[in-house]
Please model this.
Amino acid sequence: MNVNKAIALRVSELLLKKNMTQYRLEKSSGLSHSRLGCIMGEKNKTVTLSTVMLLAQGFNMSLIEFLDSPYFDFDNLEIN
Model:
């Protein structure tokens, strides 16, 4: 899978785990509705590190905690 899909899957997983809505994540992270929608719909070609950092902040976790998932294992990602 590509990195963008991994991020969308991780966000979905954390939304369920933390019993959060996408709206609440938007408010706590500062990301706009359209930006988060593009991430979740995998419409972005790339997701920047600063966006991932805002997502982690929105979940009240460190960047390392956000990335600590099998979704981001090199064996699971297509890196170009």
Remarks:
- The chain has one domain: 3-68.
- The mean pLDDT is 92.
